Structures
1.
Amino acid sequence: MTTDLDTLRGELLAAIDAATALDALEAVRVQALGKQGAITGLLKTLGKLTPEERQEQGPRIHSLREAVTEALATRKAAMEQAALDARLASETVDMTLPVDGVAPGSVHPVSQVMDELAEIFADLGFAVATGPEVEDDWHNFTALNIPETHPARAMHDTFYLAGEHEQPMVLRTHTSPVQIRTMTSQKPPIRIIAPGRVYRSDSDATHTPMFHQIEGLVIDKGITLGHLKWTLETFLKAFFERDDIVLRLRPSYFPFTEPSAEVDVGFTWKDGKRVIGGSGDAPGGGWMEVLGSGMVHRRVIEACGLDPNEWQGFAFGTGVDRLAMLKYGMDDLRPFFDGDLRWLKHYGFSALDVPTLSGGVGA
Ligand code: DAH
């Protein structure tokens, strides 16, 4: 019996060692420890032995079972590790492969400029806010101090949605309703920008039915026109990447701001193109309107449930497509929306070129 057990142990351990695949190993396990297995059979014989025989044989059989169980587990772990190593070796990714050859896509100038704006304003402590493109009349007009009879409604060439609604529904005509959505959903102090699509029934060389705007809003205590001017100057210097940006604030009118100002930047002509920078009053220079802005009208603050005696602020809005044209030198707006790959190849940006302030936002 003793030699039998030793022989069996030797055979089983050798079979475990020789197994090269998981199913072969499983076969050895069944052969030793399965219902009809050799060790299982030996364990069953214990009951028929005399107490003395059992005392001698029991520990031997149990030790055999333990040795085989452990050898099986060790071998199985080694096989699984080897399988994992082989898989990892065959599934490696070469991080040094050039991306350009694999994914020749590019970032649209509008996306690029929106990323640049988010980066610039994040540095000034502004969060990015969003609102729906299908907007209700109250958010798009009424709360912004544009009552039903106001000529601004006609001026906006609004797309109205067909069908019965509690109030007229429109495709938002500007990003200004995001001011309202932000003031009614979060507590001041507020500093947000809101980039996005807007819609007007208008189409020619400089107008498309869908275009992009960015809105800015600051609500806090003791905010003045000085804060507005500094913020716009800082933003435009960072955006055009020049320190010689000169602003001119012209008194204007918007229903949602009082006072209101249109903001011009100075430019000079170079090789038949406008180059932003310097005073527009310099010889050969001129002024170009880039932004609408003003101090948030107290009626707007009130419409959002805030006390205008406690909270003040400024707002601004501008066209993203136009900013892109000015910065990157396109003279026609329509190709922005044509999806022409040649245009995109020429004016697009590498997806790897993420705008950062330290690296130059437009680099
Ligand atoms: N919403 C205006 C437009 O679409 C732009 C604008 C002007 C936004 C002045 C503002 C602002 O926030 O203060 O023409």
Note: Residues 174, 176, 215, 254, 257, 292-294, 315-317 surround 3,4-dihydroxyphenylalanine (CB under 6 Å).
2.
Amino acid sequence: MLTTGPRGTKDILPDISYSWRYIENIIHELCQQAAYQEIRTPIFEHTELFLRGIGETTDIVEKEMYTFTDLGQRSLTLRPENTAAVVRSYLENKLYATLNPAKLYYIGPMFRYDRPQAGRYRQFHQFGVEAIGAKDPSIDAEIISLAIQFFQRLGLNDLTLQINSVGCPVCRPIYREKLQAFFKDKLPSLCKDCQSRYERNPMRLLDCKNEKCQELSQGAPHIIDCLCEECNDHFEKLQGFFKAANIDFIINKRLVRGLDYYTKTAFEIEYKPLGAQSAVCGGGRYDGLIEQCGGQATPAIGFAIGLERTFLALEKQNLLPPKDDSIKIFIAPIGEKAKEVAFRLVYELRSAHISAETDYLDRSIKAQMKSANRYQAEYVAIIGEDELLNNQVMLKNMKTSEQELVSIDDLKNKLVDKAGEKKND
Ligand code: AMP
């Protein structure tokens, strides 16, 4: 127990953490270039926020939340997603007063009591983007294109963008009735979940994973054929933007978001080689959510990308960059007095932003040279007895094997000069 992490969690070990930074750097750069600003919200929120902001009839709220009571008897929940928290923060901090639209992004861990398997964890990470305050389909197109550009920058191809419209409070009730009429006599044969969805959230009947339910839903009416004029126009315009920018997409009429505050655009990006957990990005418009959370009616749209799945896709296509944790110089002291000098040198070099490492285990010089190689050190500075007497180090270039005696006081400048020489080569 003490040596095993909780089920569904994963340590990000040193052999992979560098590639998390690689992905995070791409996210920050991309978002900065598209004028999105980072927001960091707490990992836990009042449970109530998620009940309202995700919806009480969703799988997440019904079955997957990590909810606990704190010592002050408040019900808190580890965030299962971050849109609701961003909206909470937007309202609490009155971001609408300065940012319009508020274009925000986040990277961070989310928590869901899911059934762990490849690509599905109980703690996982999402990169998400929210644009709050604009209703024009051009912002839908921008948001979706940002997700695509993120995957493009990573070098991932073979992605499929699926889009749909889930209507609005004007056209959806009519569609709901049609849908319920279609399923009415099939109700006894549907799974238990679908039977309860029938009344509360009938659109979710379309994305049940149960084979029997999928079969029974063949021929069900599609919302896209029941859109009101405004929703239809929005959806047409969105497609127009994609065509103008040569962004490929597929219309998936069964792509749904079941709750009333989801409106118009819904989309998903899939990377099929991942198999069962192939969705790498999901998102959509949520024009009713801000009001639902206590704000003024405000249109908004966003997406969330699963970073673990992105990693799996990158590994599959061999696209992770090689790890580079090489250092500039390894200081190899021999003897107690030399260790002090080594410490001083490492300290001074690091202060000058030069990567430096030394030995902490009283290793032999041979073993220290091995360490230096493992660190792919460009130089090794050996401090033996003779060198110590003369206030020098023996500086060895590990590539050329050239050696020279350098005064301890000059070492830093020497390395800086050498870096300059290299640049001018
Ligand atoms: P959602 O918030 O459910 O729309 O999910 C957005 C994205 O997060 C999905 O497309 C997945 O890539 C990722 N995701 C969702 N749930 C999990 C999970 N349990 N483990 C890993 N990734 C997940």
Note: The radius of gyration is 28 Å.
